[in-house]
Amino acid sequence: MSTPTSADWLSHRSEIRVLDCTIRDGGLMNNHHFDDHVVKAVYDACVASGIDYMEIGYRASRKNIKLGEHGCWKYCQEEDIRRVVGENATALKLSIMADAGKCDYREDIPAKQESVIDLVRVACYVHQVPLALDMLKDARDKGYETTVNLMAVTTVGDCELEAALELLAPSEAQAIYVVDSFGALYPLQTRRLVQKYLQYAKAGGKEVGIHAHNNLQLAYANTIEAISLGANYIDATMAGLGRGAGNCPMELLLGLLRDPQYQLRPVLQCVAETIEPLRHELGWGFDLPYMLTGLFNQHPRAAIAYNAQPETGDIGAFFDSF
Amino acid sequence: MSTPTSADWLSHRSEIRVLDCTIRDGGLMNNHHFDDHVVKAVYDACVASGIDYMEIGYRASRKNIKLGEHGCWKYCQEEDIRRVVGENATALKLSIMADAGKCDYREDIPAKQESVIDLVRVACYVHQVPLALDMLKDARDKGYETTVNLMAVTTVGDCELEAALELLAPSEAQAIYVVDSFGALYPLQTRRLVQKYLQYAKAGGKEVGIHAHNNLQLAYANTIEAISLGANYIDATMAGLGRGAGNCPMELLLGLLRDPQYQLRPVLQCVAETIEPLRHELGWGFDLPYMLTGLFNQHPRAAIAYNAQPETGDIGAFFDSF
């Protein structure tokens, strides 16, 4: 593959794969309780706009679960998915995310020919890489495409990261994602990470992906930076819907990509008609508490707790708590 | 001055000057009808946080005005400013913006010793550069600091821009701003513009500034890019309050700058307690219509009209109109 030049992002690169994870990442804001019509609207928009993959939820262990505590998109059983997409006779590929340590992957993921899913995305923290490797092999052996999301990379030291990338480079994953779970990356840091990932991934014949969060209003900017350097697997969500401050907005991403494969209009309509009406209830998006967890490179849980208080909090005291 | 390195933006650079233009740019969303307590809260936060300049509004011609149509911050008469800031016995400097063609600058701007204002910022379009030069000279002759905002730079061809910069380089302005009025710049384009401005400005002993809009959620990213290259005059607003999609948020900017001169906490409190409560009424911030005017490099007026409709518009039809 040729080295991308600075002009490439204004042109287009056929290797780019756009993945919509609205329902999966957004599910972290409503315990995965999306009505079918919302999932269907996102699915239809993905199909109509030429998006490559749609991640429809997690596949999580159903052992010891409390019925009704989480919506069905936490488990993504085949019958739930088919209720929305049928046999998915479209060019759109479907993915699920399987979290290391939270998925009985050997039992819960059937052989590919029994599933409407195309891609299994394995998510892990750095200490779970050996487990992730087994999950990747399991998925590939069953016939799926696989990728790996190494989460919370801003908390991982260089030495540990390089060890992880050495292990992942020869794995079954077809792409390794730079995942800024805390929304703490500046573009300059994204640049260095993507360059490092590319070095390992390309040696293993793999692609690099980017999954950004918007705590510092930099999700899109970091995504542009990653694309300009050669990252080809790009996560985005409708209206940026995702945990906390949310993700890189799909409407911005498709506005950037010049590949005639992609159509912006269906995404605009999905955002305006289906996703924005959920904003008040779900409460994702940039705000001061999420900004502060990003700024201090921390999990958004403190901001989630701050925002869940019945009374408006004291932002000065919250700032002092870091 | 030394060439900045990529590490500089994580350190600090004493040449940086932060300018708050919340009331000035935000005034475009409410016809400059800010209550004094809002202006005072922004002023107090600027003082407490160590911000260098606060732009309190425009100084515009009062010929043929309809009384009450615009709030007093469109004119910034000395008595209005002093009602809020007294004699401004603080380290914060105050600025007004004077638009070329909209200000009777010879009469309406008194000698510096009669004014509580420190800096006169001249704003012009490229065809108004000769007028701006006269305004800059007038302001400097009267004893003020002056800078120039060359507006809507994304609509200016390279050849015209270079001619404008040649004229502005030897002018009285102490800084020349890259102004992305339409919020249409990507960081790569910001980089090229800032480099070009620096080339002319440094030859004339001047600084370069950046004034960004957030139509593509890139106001902060473009501001970071400009800072990393050596731009030292940085515009931002509380909660990003400004025309349309708004500006680079001050809370993000101060979160980035490591100079102990700046304190984030007073800005957080001003945003949470004074500015965010205005959001519903003023309606600034990123949305799909503002995104589209930015994407298509157009003045936000079409988005403003779309958002002012009594019924929710059809975003697909709006997209088709470009």
Automatic annotation (TrEMBL), chains A, B:
SUPFAM superfamilies: Aldolase. Residues 16-272 form the Pyruvate carboxyltransferase domain. Keywords: Manganese. Gene3D superfamilies: Aldolase class I. It holds the Pfam family HMGL-like. It comes from the Bacteria. InterPro entries: 2-IPM_HCS-like, Aldolase_TIM, PYR_CT. This is Pyruvate carboxyltransferase domain-containing protein.
